[in-house]
Design a protein that fits this description.
The protein is an alpha+beta fold. Helices cover 43% and strands 19% of the residues. It starts with a helix and ends in a 5-residue tail after the last strand.
Length: 640
């Protein structure tokens, strides 16, 4: 058994090591695939944000040049309110305004000929203050540089070749990494034609030219030509008067003129962004017409803008449950965090980072996986691994118990052969000895001869019983034993047992008590049941003969429609650990009493086999006091 346990341990180790390696590799592959899926959909989320920004840029680039005034030229030259004459629908846009060549300010919220509406007064003051700050910065036109990328998170997240092949490369093979776009809208300045009415409306002034800051007169050309790529060069001081006069002249003389008269060609530069402060960004375009530069745009409020992006694209998505999104714009940061139940998870590398193209170059996004979502394949693999482990453990336990049972049975058979040899040798020796004594005439008196003959008969019966038990066990194992089942109430069986065991009980000094009242009719084999009771009584005599008070009790009666037959004694009882094994083949309790009393270990095994063959059950239990009780249960009405 020790070698068997060692072999089982070595087998478990040899099987567990490759299984553990396979499980480790599989879990790693599943994690990499899940991380790849999260990265893919994180990029999709950033693409959606970029699409929103692109749509905003497309909308602003498509506005007419005179739309930044309260009234604009509509179809047929009819003046109509501008679409920007009301507060923006987007909470993150403070408002629209136009910065004129002379630095003056105008907003579509205010009519040229009217006062500032009370409801717009504070908003107009804010826009005018922003225009003042912008005038101080537009010579340099500093556009905030995007924040330096984290070492572990560049424009696209670093992914090892193994991790890429686990997800993306299984579906598409790319020759080179995807290049990020530089701008969301138009890449270079475009030329656009406007009517003289639109040009005149664009060039209307609200402040005298003498209020224009002088420091702009020499530097506007360079700023515009360097950043917008203008094809126009100014030949006169920057003022709206020449454009306004030319527009008025062409508007008057354009009727009946050539097709190209009465129209102006303007250059519209791409949108740009200038940080006003840590809370506001001015996104504008340059309009170049007849040597004049106008700046038209809107003021973006960073905190509401970041909150809008977070609430619209991140928070409602399932990916927000296990990732962290960081949006950074000109020093202002908004962070979307997953639920608190992921607080204990280890944070991984940045799975997706992006700096958005111009004019939103001031905006960057970083997404980090906090807790990877559970993979269905992981659950399935874990379940399969658990089932495999249970099956392996159960198989090893079954093999161990089977081998142990076989070894125990082999050991019991070996002990049985030794015990049978001893049990057969003892009566044969006694028979031979007493025959020799009779032959030599040692028994001098007839009484002594009768005593010797009685011993010979007892030893012969003992030898015959032992041989019969071995033969009965052999026939039961081969299922060749036939039973003569008849109906009766056990009274004949109890009478035969009392008669057969009377002399032996008297010789050993045992008192037999039989209590049988109201016995039901049941089906049994009389000879077999007599042998069962004799085996039980002989077992009690063998283990109780050393006691001063020797008692055996047989009780029979009906309980719950079954015949209950009990044989009790006041002997030493059965050790608790052996109660379940005393009916096993060749089993003997290993104690001092058993070693001195001898036996073959087949008596109780025969009892169980006989009772089970008659459709009954047998069990052993210790009494509350000394001794034990063997209980036999037989069906009252049993089929043969």
């Amino acid at each position: 058994m020790r070698n068997l346990r060692l072999y089982m341990i070595v087998f478990c180790v040899l099987v567990s090591l490759p299984l553990a390696f396979v499980a480790w590799r599989t879990y790693g592959a599943l994690d990499r695939e899940t991380r790849g899926q999260v990265r893919f959909f994180a990029e999709q989320l950033l693409d959606e944000i970029e699409a929103e920004l692109r749509e905003l840029v497309r909308r602003e680039e498509g506005r007419a040049v005179d739309e930044y005034r309260h009234m604009r030229v509509g179809a047929g030259g009819i003046m109509a309110p501008s679409a920007l004459a009301e507060l923006p629908n987007e909470a993150y846009i403070l408002g629209y305004f136009q910065n004129n060549p002379d630095g003056t300010f105008q907003t579509p919220l205010v009519d040229d000929a009217g006062p500032v509406p009370t409801v717009y007064d504070q908003r107009v003051r804010q826009l005018e203050s922003i225009n003042t700050i912008f005038n101080q910065r537009k010579l340099v036109a500093r556009i905030p540089k995007p924040p330096a990328a984290r070492p572990e998170a560049q424009t696209t997240a670093k992914v090892g070749p193994k991790e890429q092949s686990s997800f993306a490369d299984r579906f598409i093979r790319t020759s080179e990494p995807k290049k990020s776009k530089k701008v969301l809208g138009q890449k270079t300045a475009r030329l656009e034609e406007i009517t003289a009415d639109q040009a005149m409306n664009l060039a209307k002034k609200e402040t005298p030219a003498d209020k224009r800051p002088r420091e702009y007169e020499a530097a506007e050309d360079e700023a515009f030509d360097a950043t917008a790529g203008s094809a126009y060069r100014r030949a006169a001081p920057s003022t709206a008067a020449p454009l306004l006069q030319e527009a008025q002249r062409q508007a008057i003389t354009g009727v009946g003129a050539q097709a190209d008269q009465g129209r102006f060609q303007v250059e519209v530069a791409p949108l740009q962004a200038v940080a006003i402060d840590t809370e506001q960004i001015f996104i504008f375009r340059r309009i170049g017409i007849n040597g004049e530069i106008y700046r038209q745009g809107f003021v973006l409020q960073l905190r509401p803008f970041l909150d809008h992006l977070m609430a619209s694209f991140y928070t409602p998505q399932p990916i927000s449950g296990y990732t962290r999104l960081r949006l950074t714009a000109a020093g202002r940061t908004a962070i979307g965090t997953p639920p608190s139940n992921t607080a204990g998870h280890r944070e991984s590398d940045w799975i997706a980072t992006r700096t958005f193209p111009a004019p939103f170059g001031f905006l960057s996004a970083e997404m980090q996986a906090v807790a990877l979502p559970p993979s269905p394949a992981r659950k399935t693999f874990t379940l399969a691994l658990g089932i495999l482990a249970v099956v392996m453990v159960a198989g090893l336990v079954a093999i161990y118990h089977s081998a142990r049972t076989v070894l125990d049975l082999s050991e019991r058979r070996s002990r049985f052969v030794s015990a049978v040899t001893h049990e057969l040798k003892t009566p044969l020796t006694n028979i031979r000895m007493y025959i020799e004594m009779l032959d030599q005439g040692i028994a001098a008196t007839p009484e002594r001869e009768q005593e010797y003959f009685g011993i010979l008969a007892s030893e012969s019966a003992r030898l015959s019983g032992l041989i019969n038990n071995v033969l009965e066990l052999s026939r039961l194992e081969k299922q060749t034993r036939r039973f003569d089942l008849r109906e009766g109430d056990l009274s004949d069986v109890l009478a035969d047992v009392r008669s057969i065991m009377a002399e032996n009980l008297a010789r050993e000094g045992f008192e037999l008590t039989v209590a049988a009242e109201g016995l039901p009719v049941c089906t049994y084999d009389r000879e077999v049941l007599v042998q069962v009771l004799i085996n039980l009584m002989e077992n009690s005599i063998k283990f109780s003969r050393h006691l001063l008070e020797k008692r055996i009790t047989i009780t029979a009666g009906e309980e719950q429609g079954r015949l209950i037959l009990k044989v009790s004694d006041n002997g030493p009882g059965i050790p608790r650990r052996a109660l379940k094994h005393v009916f096993d083949d060749f089993y003997r309790v290993d104690n001092d009493l058993n070693r001195t009393t001898g036996g073959t270990g087949i008596g109780l095994a025969l009892v169980k086999k006989f009772v089970v063959a008659m459709g009954g059950q047998v069990k052993a239990e210790n009494n509350p006091g000394p001794g034990c009780t063997i209980t036999i249960t037989l069906p009252v009405k049993a089929e043969a």
